[in-house]
Every structure is written in structure tokens, then in C-alpha cells.
From TrEMBL:
GO MF annotation list: phosphatidylinositol-3,4-bisphosphate binding; phosphatidylinositol-3,5-bisphosphate binding; phosphatidylinositol-3-phosphate binding; phosphatidylinositol-4,5-bisphosphate binding; phosphatidylinositol-4-phosphate binding; phosphatidylinositol-5-phosphate binding
Encoding gene per record: Sestd1
Pfam families listed in its UniProt record: CRAL_TRIO_2 (PF13716), Spectrin_SESTD1 (PF24915)
Protein name: SESD1 protein
Family membership noted in the UniProt record: Belongs to the SOLO family.
Domain of life: Eukaryota
Key words of the record: Repeat
Boundaries of every CRAL-TRIO domain copy: 1-142
Amino acid sequence: LLFLSETGGKDRRSGLILTIPLCLEQTSMDELSVTLDYLLSIPSEKCKARGFTVIVDGRKSQWNVVKTVVLMLQNVVPAEVSLVCVVKPDEFWDKKVTHFCFWKEKDRLGFEVILVSANKLTRYIEPCQLTEDFGGTLTYDHMDWLNKRLVFEKFTKESTSLLDELALINNGSDKGTQQERERSIDLNFLPSVDPETVLQTGHELLSELQQRRFNGSDGGVSWSPMDDELLAQPQVMKLLDSLREQYTRYQEVCRQRSKRTQLEEIQQKVMQVVNWLEGPGSEQLRTQWGIGDSIRASQALQQKHEEIESQHSEWFAVYVELNQQIAALLNAGDEEDLVELKALQQQLSDVCYRQASQLEFRQNLLQAALEFHSVAQDLSQQLDGLLGMLCVDVAPADGASIQQTLKLLEEKLKSVDLGLQGLREKGQSLLDQISNQASWAYGKDVTIENKENVDHIQGVMEDMQLRKQRCEDMVDVRRLKMLQMVQLFKCEEDAAQAVEWLSELLDALLKTHIRLGDDAQETKVLLEKHRKFVDVAQSTYDYGRQLLQATVVLCQSLRCTSRSSGDTLPRLNRVWKQFTVTSEERVHRLETAVAFHSTAEKILQECPEQPEAFNDMDQFDEIEAVGKSLLDRLTVPVVYPDGSEQYFGSPSDMASAAEHIREKMKLVSLKKQQLRQPEATTPES
């Protein structure tokens, strides 16, 4: 094609002009023949009927080559060629031409051959139909024509092949059964070339052809398109129309195929999720039915369940993605797929929600079991602590500590009651959940497993109840013992208080009960008060004795050694003996004082004229003896059984009492003297 072309020019018969430029180099006749066949295939039959005018440019070639080319035209295109113009070089072939006359061979060749110079070629062909190489004005760019022709050939080849492929694909999609349609599409689904690229190439080619038809050359000279270009335009348009039609159908087929593929992928993924959840997922839950027998066991089961939930979460994520894809397809509104999509969505949702409910139920059951075992462990620790407290022997220091211990014991028992109540509530809640497990049996009979769980829960609650009952019995015993100990400490404290009271009475007796009275009447009143005072002391002593006797009984009941028998009781007896001795001394002094004051007052109140007074002088001696005896007692201390001594009051108090007695003794002595004086004067008279 680089050396042979149709320039687009026409001869006077409107036949196409074919130019064969020859060069100095060797020309391949085979290539020239093939090229001629190709060029002659381009025009329509109507153009071929008008014949060709062939211009053989031999100005740069040898005569024998020119002759060979002309003879070859006889074999290649004898019917289509009407005239062959051989352009000769100036004065170069003159002698050789005489040896071979083409015009004589016209009948044998089938066409007329003329030798003509380039400047005389216009005699046979109009200048406007000749290129500049031959002195004409026809604008022709061989490389441009060649490139456009290559583009057209490529487009024609690709579009034709693509039309066949698309037709095969589209026709295969119209077959009767779904399986045949899918099988046909699978075999011829992808075209060998990109339809978009071919369509773009065709549009660009058509645009170029149409533009060349209406625009002039660069030089502004009017130019008419070649017949091959005019012929190419309807071919290109027809191919483009066919391509667009088939490509539109192909896109619909692809869309349907894509939708079907997407639907199949969704269906496949849905079945994967369903099969896993109903298969391995459900099997995992079937093997997990226990609740554990301790906190650690329940926590281990929870950890295992979390691993199962983690595996399920991956499939639930796939479920969410699939659900979104199905929702998008449902919103697309393809009625033919709505039923199938809704069925897939419903199946997927049912399985996922059922499995999620089973996981949640299992999680709640394990959480309830963990709480039950946690409460049971706390209650067990409380019972252990209470039992440990009850097993330790009570050895408190005083009643307050016993009261505090008893209060602590009651608080612990109350805490145990609350703990047992909480355990029962947790246990009953757990039993209720287990009883509902039949509806989540995962396709398995869980009666045996549930029975083990129920027996375990009930066993734990019964064991805690028995332990609590034993602790309550022990608490009752301990409470009684501690109350007795409180009573014991109270008795000991009260007995010690009695000793203190008795000691205070003794101290008061010694320090404040020192007056002997100024006369007999007052002394008798003091004596009566003293007897009442002694009665109070006696009551205090008896109260202390009773308390100490009660401590002995309580100690025997508690099987413990009473501290009162070795401490309080001797103190009580010692103080009481001291009080008794002191009281007797006080009574003796008061009685002596009564006798002294009574006799003294009697003597002092008698009249001197009474004769019997002179005959009773012995009473003066008696009262004097009583007074001296009383004075002596005031100076003598009280001697206790243990040899200790104690004085009544202070020395000044005793001196005051003694002084009063001495004064009265002086009055009695003075009275005695008065009575003796009359007796002495009577004999003298």
C-alpha cells in the first residue's frame, strides 16, 4: 500500500483511477498482486462496472519492470481495467519502446496501453483528477488515506467479530431453560474485545469520515471524498447501529447475569451462615449444658461461652452484611426475585435470631449460676465464721464484753438468715431458668442434664439449710450460756457492790456513829437508830450472801470456777464480822450510856428531904463505876478477829463525849455531897 493507491480521482468515463508508482528498487510482483486484489475489493460493484484507469509511474523504474507490471495487470484485473497509462521518463525508453508496442497487444491484453509523458497525461485525464505528481490539482495524502483505511479495517474486523460474539451471548441468554441459558452464558460470557473501545473507535472514525465529506482541504480548495470513504460511512453507521443494539442487549444480559450471580452468592452465603449456625454452632451449644459446681467452674464455663459467642459474632457480622445486601436488592424492585429474596431473608433472620436467643439464654443461665454460687460461697464463709465463733470457748472479762459478743453473734446469725434467703431466691430463679431450658434444648433431650443441675442446686440449698440449722442450735446454747454468764457477772458485780456498801456502812459506823447522847432519852433514840442501821447492814450482808450463792449455782451450771468464792465471799464475811464486832461495841456503849444517864438523872432529880435517899448511897457508887467503865470503853479501840484495831471517831470526838460524861459524874458527885451534909449535922444537934 505504500506504493499503490486509489487517489480518489476519476477518468472521463467516471471510472476510478489506480496509481502504481514504481521505484528503482526491486518490486515484488507477488506483493503487487496482493495489493491490487485488496484495492480492487474496496469499490462497489457499480464502480467496478465503470472500469479503472491505471497510471503506471515508470519514471523511476526500468522498462522490464514496467512491462512486467503491465503484463501482470492482464492476469489480475483484465476485465476491470479500461486504460493503462504508462508514464515514461523523458527520452529514456525510445529505443526500447520500438521493440514492444502495447497497442499492438490490445486484443491480447484486454485493455489499451499508452506511453505518455507526465506533462501530457492531462490529455487523457482531467487535471482536477490528477495529483500534483502528475501536474494535477487533486489533493491526496496517501499516508492519511492509509491510516484511515487501517482504522476502518480494524474497526470492521473487530466490530464484526464482536457482533458475532455478542449475538452468540445474547441469543444464548434467550434459550428456554434456565440451565441452558446459564450454560450458554458461561461458555461465551466475555467478549474478546472491549465493546466500549470498539464503539468509541467507530464513532471517531465516523466523525472523521463525515468531517472530510463537508470540509475542504488545508489549502481551501474544494475536495470531494473518495468512493471508498463514501462507501465506508454507511458501513460504519450500520456496524455502529448493530453494535449498539447488541451491546445494549449484552449489558442487559450482564446485568441479569450479575444480578443472578449476586443472588446466587447471597444464597450461597446465606446457606453457609445457616448451615454453620444449625450445624457446628448448635453443636457447640448442645455440648454446653452444665452450670458448674463452684464460682471457678461457672467462670470457666462463661469463658468457654464467650469463645463460642466470639465465633458466632463473625457469622452474625456476615448476617448483617447479607441482610443489607438483600434489603438493597429488595429496594431495586425486581418482582421476579422478590419472593426468593424475602424467603432467604426470612430464613436467615429466623436462624440468626433463634441462635442469638439461645446464646443469650445460655449467657443468662451461666450468669445466674455464677451469682448463685457466689451467694452460696459467701453464705458458706459466713457459716464457717459463725461456727468458728461458736466453737471457741467463751472467756470474756466482764458482762459488757459478753453483751458485745452476744450482739455480734446475733448480727452474724441475722446475716446468715439474709444470706440463706438470698440463696433461696437465686436458687429458685436459676431453677426457673433451667425449667425453661426445654424450649431451648438445641434439638437434644436435656432432662438428664437438667436433673443433675437441679439436684446440685437443691443439694446446695439443703446443705446450707442444715448448716444454718446446726448453727442456730449452737447459737441457742451459746446464747443461754452467755446470758447465764451475764447473770453471773451481774451477781458478782452486785456481790462486790454489797461488800462495798457494807464497808461503807462500817466506815460510817466508825466515823459518824460516835455520840452517846446527852441524856437517857437521846441515848435511847441513838440506840434505836443504831438497831435500824444494823438491820440495813444485815440486809446488805444477806443480799450479798444470796448473790454469792447464785454465782455458785451459775458456776455449777456453766461448769466454771467462781471467782467470788475465793475473793468476794471472804471479803464479805470479813467486813461483816468487823461490822458485827463494831456494832456490838456500839450497842454496849449505848446501853452503858443509857444506864449511866438513867441513874444519873434519877439521882439528880431526887429531893434532899426524901429520907430514902440517905439510905441508898450505894447507887452513887454504882453510877460512878458505870461512868468510869464508860470512860474506859471510850479510850479502848475495837479489836477485830484478825487482831486489827479501829477507834470510833477521832480522839477529839472521844474527848468531847468523855468530857460530857465527866461533867455529869461531877453533878452526881456534887449531889452525893449535898446529901451527906445533912446527915453529918443531925447528930451534933
